[in-house]
Queue: 2 jobs
Job 1
Amino acid sequence: MRVAPAVELTGNQRQALEQWARGRSLPARQVERARIVLLAASGRQDVEIAAKLGITNQKAARWRARFLEFGLAGLEKDAPRPGRTPSIPSAKVSAVIDKTTQERPSNATHWSTRTMAAEVGISEASVRRIWKAHGLKPHLVESFKISNDREFAGKLEAIVGLYLNPPEHALVLCCDEKSQIQALDRTQPGLPLKRGRGQTMTHDYKRNGTTTLFAALNAADGKVISLCQERHRHQEWLKFLRLLDAATPAGKQLHLIADNYATHKHPKVQRWLGRHRRFHMHFTPTSASWLNMVERFFRDLTEHRLRRGVFRDEEELITAIDTYIDKHNEQPKPFIWTAKASDILEKVKRARTVLNNIQSV
C-alpha cells in the first residue's frame, strides 16, 4: 500500500488549524480542510481520513499535498482552475479591438455593438464583453482644447501660485461673468416627485428675459460677492469692481483672477485700476477658463438652482440667484486646488506632442 507523505505542524500552525476545525462562522470547506490536515498530522493515511470524514481518498490526498506545498494559505482558497476554452479565438478579439480603435463604419462616425457584431461575425453580447474587458467605449467622446497662448506657462504658474501659496495680507478673488442667464417658465405645470415616479417637466419653455451674474469667489474661505446686471459691458464690470472695493477690507491687497474678455481690458477699466493700486489683475490663458475656480461655483449654481427652476420674470430669477448665494455664504466651503503647475505643464506638453503628430500625419 502506498504511504502518504507525513505532515508535521508547528505550534502556530496546529493552533490555527484547531481554531478553524472548531469554527462556526468559517466556510464549511475551510473547516473540512483543517480537519483533513490535523488527521494527516496525527499519522492517519488518506484512506482512513476519507472514511472518518465521509469524503473521497482523492480529496484527502489533494489537501494534504496543498498544505505541504503552500501551508495554511493553501487551505483558504481553491486552487486556480484553467476555465473553459474561449469560444472566440484571440485573432477575432484582436480584430474587434483593431477595428474599434483604428477604423470607422462606412456610414457612421463610430461603432455600435450591433454594427461591430455584423462586421466581424460574432454576437452583440460578445462585442460588449470584449469592449468591457479592454476598456473601450466608442459611444463616448471627451472634449478638449489645448491653449495656444504664448504666455501660457507664465500665466498658469502665476495663478496656481496664488492658489497654492496665496500672498499675506491679501485676498485672492476668482472673478467672472455668467452671462445671458435665462428666466425660463414652462408651458405647462409639471408633476411633483412621488414614489415610483420622478419629477416631470415639459421640454418646451417660455423666455421671460435674461440677466448677467458678476461673481467673485474668495479662494480662501469660499464666500461669493455677486451682482446681477442687465448687460455685461465695461460699465457693468466697473460697477462690480467698485462693489469689490467697498465690500472688502481697505487694508487688503486684491488679486483678481479673470479671463481675457475684452471688457476686462477696456481703457476705462485700465484707468480705474491705475487709480486703485490695491487691485492686481491676473488673466487666465486663452482657452483655459478651467483655471478660474469661480467656474466651479457657476456649475453648482446651474445644477442646483437654475436648470430645473421656473421663473416668471427677471426679478424672480435674480431673487433666486441672490437667495442661493446668501445661503451659500452662510456656510461657505472653499474649493481646494491641488494640481501643481509643473504637472499641468507636463500634461499639456504630452497633449501638444500627440496633437502635432496627428496633424503631421
Job 2
Amino acid sequence: MQFEPPDDLDVIDRVHDLGIDTVGIHVETFDPDVLARVAPAKARAGIDHYFAAWERAVERFGPGQVTTYVIVGMGEDPELIVEGCRRAIDLGVYPFVVPLRPVAGSLMSDWAPPDPPAVEAIVRRVAPYLQARGIGAGTAKAGCSRCNACSPMAAVERRLQIGPKPVAVTRG
C-alpha cells in the first residue's frame, strides 16, 4: 500500500491492523528546494513529517517493509540525497533510488533523464548502508523494492551480496 504521511500517525496503525504488510511513503527527493519546485504539497508537509511517519511505520511493519521513492535527475544535490537515504535507512526504511523517467504529456515530459553513471554513483553510496542494516530487495515482502523494475538498486545489492537473493515474481 502507498500513501502520503498522514497528519494523524495512528492511521499507520490502522493500516497495519487491516493486514497490510508493506507500505510505501514516497518523499521523491530529500532536497528541499527541488521538493518545493516539483512537489509543493509534499514540501509543505515537510521532510521531517516523512521521517516521523517512517519511524511509526517501521515500528509497525518492521525494517525493510517501509519504502520511499527517491528520484534522481530533478536537479537535486546528490549529497542531500545520500544523506537523506542514510538517515532513512537508519530508521529501517528502504530508499528506492530511481532515475527520472520523463513521460510524454506529463509536466516533466521535456526533462532529460539523468546520466546512468550519476544514478549508479548515488546507489553505490546508499547500498552499503542497506547492507549494514540487513535490508535489501530480497527482504521486502512486497512493493517497489521487491519488484525492482525501475531501479538499479537490486543489481548493485547483488554485487555487494546484500541480504537474501530476491525471489522471482511470477504473474498469473
